[in-house]
Structure formats: structure tokens, C-alpha cells
């Protein structure tokens, strides 16, 4: 309801995309999932051109829903990329700068985490976010089949990845810090396979002890 009432376009995309993706990833180790995926891939190949046209139409409608906002975002992105490449490639400018009148004097890179990182902190800053973010995504995608907590954490990472292309994650940290806590708890907890192996080793060690030692 919050996503719908906020009229946020990214929130609506997250509702439509993330839930089915996490549901499918969490069941990738089940045979029936692959039996369902096989005919789906065949149909996708058959109707691919039609689906591409539908997606392009949806993207145009998505941009037209708030045309001024889309224009400002695109202009801020172009300015950030051009100045990053020309002026401060490796370590960025170090500070946030306001854009020209064309973008209503909004800070450069403020509507895109990656553009903002490239402008302020350069390629080094972008790599510093990309490596842990996508490493966490891969680890949680692998562990999503192990429980609901892992799937919830994976959903939160998908939300961060999605919003990194439309907002500045740094200034939104006060909103999503509970998601970071959840991810940390899930990643710190050993996988079920590890726990089972530890239990077996303890059982073997216990069984190997002489009776009088008990």
C-alpha cells in the first residue's frame, strides 16, 4: 500500500519484479521449477519480438508519467558522466556540486547512485559499492532456497540494486538501515549445511569418547 500510494515509479516496478524473481530463485533446486521454466523459455523465444515491443511501450509510458522528472534525471546523468570522464576519472571531485539551471540547480548525480559515486568519488568509489553489493546479491541468491529469512534479505538487496539506478542510496540510509541489519544477521548465520556438518562432527566426537569419560 505504501508503494502504491506513494506513486513512486520505482516502487511499482519493485512490486511487480522483485517478488516473482525471489520466489523463483528460492526454488531453483526443485525439479518442477525447471519443468516449468523449459516451456516458458520456448514461449519467450517464440513471442520475443512482441514482448520487446510491449516492454518498450511500457518504458515510454513509464518515462512519460513524469516527463519533467525523467528529463532532469537524464540531464543530471549526462552532466555527471561527462564531467567525471573529463575532470576526475579515478577519485572524483570529492564534493557535491549543484547543476545548472537546465536541471533546476539540483546536485549532480543526486538521482542516481552510480552517477553520483562516479562524480564525487570516481571509479574507485563506484567499485567500492559495486563489489560488496553484487557479492551480497550472489551469496543471498545462492542461499535463498534455505529459508524465508534468506529470501527476505535477498529481496532487500534487489530493492537496493533497483533503487541505486534512480536514487542516491547514501542519503536514504536512514530509511533502509533495518534491511542492512537483516542482511548482516542472515550472512553471519552459518548455512544449514554447515550447521548439519558441525552437528555430525560433534555427534561423532561424542560417540568416540569412552563410557567412563561421560
H/E order of the elements?
HHHHHHHHH
Extended strand count: 0
Q: Largest sheet, described in full?
A: none
Determine the mean pLDDT. Answer: 82
Number of H- or I-type helical stretches: 9
Poorly predicted parts? none
Using only CA atoms, what is the Rg?
A: 23 Å
Q: Globular, elongated, flat, extended or rod-shaped: what is the shape?
A: globular
Strand fraction: under 5%
Could you estimate the helical fraction of the residues in percent?
A: over 70%
Oligomer: single chain
Query: What class would the helix/strand composition place it in?
Result: mainly alpha
The rounded distance between the terminal residues' Cα atoms is 58 Å
Give structural notes.
This protein is mainly alpha-helical. The protein contains 9 helices and no strands. The chain has helices at residues 2-6, 9-25, 31-46, 48-65, 67-87, 113-143, 148-163, 173-188, 192-208. The N and C termini lie far apart (58 Å).
Secondary structure topology:
Layout: H1 2-6, H2 9-25, H3 31-46, H4 48-65, H5 67-87, H6 113-143, H7 148-163, H8 173-188, H9 192-208
Helix pairs in contact: 2-7, 5-6, 6-7, 7-8
How would you concisely characterize the structure shown here?
The protein has helices spanning 2-6, 9-25, 31-46, 48-65, 67-87, 113-143, 148-163, 173-188, 192-208. The protein has 214 residues and is an all-alpha fold. The protein is globular and about 75 Å long.
